[in-house]
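Quick start: what a row looks like.
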Amino acid sequence: MSALSADRATRTARWSDLVDAVRDAGQYASAAEAEQVVRVVLAALGDHVTGDERVDLARALPEEAARLVASRIPVNRPLTAPEFVDAVAGRIEGATPATARWDVSSVLSVLPKLVGDELVDRLLSQLPSGYALLFGKAELVPAA
């Protein structure tokens, strides 16, 4: 096997590892269902991350996931966490706000383990309050 083929095999495994982690987290019936959710949520996230955090997130993700994030044009105003969930619901056929919240959390909660807590904390610093819970983290509020 050539080095290029080995690299592609590794990236494929990493994509499948991401899909499998989401499938486990969200208790999806099939890998295909989990993969659809990963694609929708990461594309939506790509609409909201910018700058060095966007570049670092794309570098930390499997190639296919990185393309989902990097191919998006960031919005001018990030959505609040509830608006983000509603936007995802609009992209998944038959989704409700409750199922979309489950889908979003199933994907975003696996990211800290995959890309590291430090990068997730940097992402959260860019996003409106309320996103931390979607990533499976406590919402930190500065002391008054």
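That is the whole record. Helices lie at 3-26, 31-46, 51-60, 63-70, 81-91, 97-108, 111-115, 117-126. Residues 1-13 have pLDDT under 50 and may be disordered.
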